[in-house]
Design a protein that fits this description.
It holds the Pfam family Transket_pyr. With 312 residues, this protein is α/β, with parallel strands linked by helices. The protein has 13 helices and 14 strands. The chain has a seven-stranded mixed β-sheet with strand order 3-2-4-5-7-6-12, with helices on both faces. It has a five-stranded mixed β-sheet with strand order 9-11-10-13-14, sandwiched between helices. Strands 1-8 form a two-stranded antiparallel sheet.
Length: 312
């Protein structure tokens, strides 16, 4: 059964509120959309509605963190990251305060919100901030686990969530560990290193490739920073090619992190699947993903090209 990450997040956040009285939730007038409003209905004394004022929200959160609380700020990824960047950089990262920034509606599927709402640069921006942990869950179960763990992850955290339902990808009994990747499928021809929503698409592409005699390993990387370099090097060393996949710009995100890692530790070409150097657009989700080259077919084509077997 597929469950939307935002729904799983909302439920887990409400559960967290009952376990941790030091957790405070801040909302920039999008509580119903990002599903943090359920926390507010249960714990109104720890729910702060700041209105459409993302910069102020982060500043308030930093003050609360300095007083010993664990603030969780909520907005769309495009707004949480880009509008409030100065406050995140100065008030949160330079101080190392444990503010947790949750960016929902990430990537391209933003209910036809178009380029203003699509966030294809947020991982790159947050990854570049010193001390910031960047987590991109692959499905609802993983998103819920990360949410319940947020207070225990030291320092600033950026949690990137997706609006729509995605197929489950983590195995039964899985336990998220910060900074650790998980091998979801073995293979020795190509290593597909993916994060977020692209992991489900990577698994689908790997299944198609198996029908063509190509053994594709799928390494899911929920923590983009700090990167699990050992897992990346290990899977790359077992394969003839590496392909990264992310619903994000090809610049500065997972593909860049993997290329930097392998360039220093196990030099080999890295082929990136992601949004080209452009903003998102408005349109039906499936059509938009195909148009910008971040669907299952795009992964399959890139793998075949990397192996020199055609596909473009």
């Amino acid at each position: 059964m597929t469950v939307a990450m935002r729904d799983a997040y909302g439920e887990a956040l409400a559960q967290l509120g009952g376990l941790r009285p030091d957790v405070v939730v801040l909302d920039a007038d999008l509580g119903n959309s990002v599903r943090c409003d359920g926390f507010g209905r249960l714990y109104s004394d720890r729910y702060i509605q700041v209105g459409i004022a993302e910069q102020n929200m982060v500043g308030v959160a930093a003050g609360l963190a300095a007083c010993g609380l664990v603030p969780v700020v909520n907005s769309f990824a495009a707004f949480a990251v880009c509008r409030a960047l100065d406050q995140i950089r100065v008030s949160v990262c330079q101080t190392g305060l444990p503010v947790k920034v949750v960016g929902s509606y990430s990537g391209l599927a933003v209910s036809k919100g178009g380029s203003t709402h699509a966030s294809v640069e947020d991982i790159a921006v947050m990854r570049a901030l010193p001390g910031m942990t960047v987590i991109v869950p692959g499905d609802a179960e993983e998103a819920a686990q990360v949410t319940r763990m947020l207070p225990d992850i030291p320092g600033p955290v950026y949690l990137r969530l997706y609006r729509n339902a995605v197929p489950p990808v983590v195995p039964a009994g899985y336990r998220f560990r910060p900074g650790k990747a998980v091998l979801l499928r073995p293979g020795t021809d190509v290593a597909i290193v993916s994060t977020g929503t692209m992991t489900a698409r990577a698994l689908e592409a790997a299944g198609r490739l198996a029908g063509r005699g190509v053994g594709a390993a799928v390494l899911h990387v929920p923590t983009v920073k700090p990167l699990d370099e050992e897992a990346v090097v290990d899977v790359a060393a077992r394969c003839r090619a590496v392909v990264t996949a992310e619903e994000h710009s090809v610049i500065g995100g997972l593909g860049a992190a993997v290329a930097e890692c392998l360039g220093e530790r196990h030099p080999m070409p890295v082929h990136r699947v992601g949004v080209p150097d452009r903003f998102g657009e408005s349109g039906p989700d499936d059509e938009l993903l195909a148009h910008l080259g971040v669907d299952e077919a795009a992964i399959e084509r890139r793998v075949l090209a990397a192996l020199g077997e055609g596909g473009g």
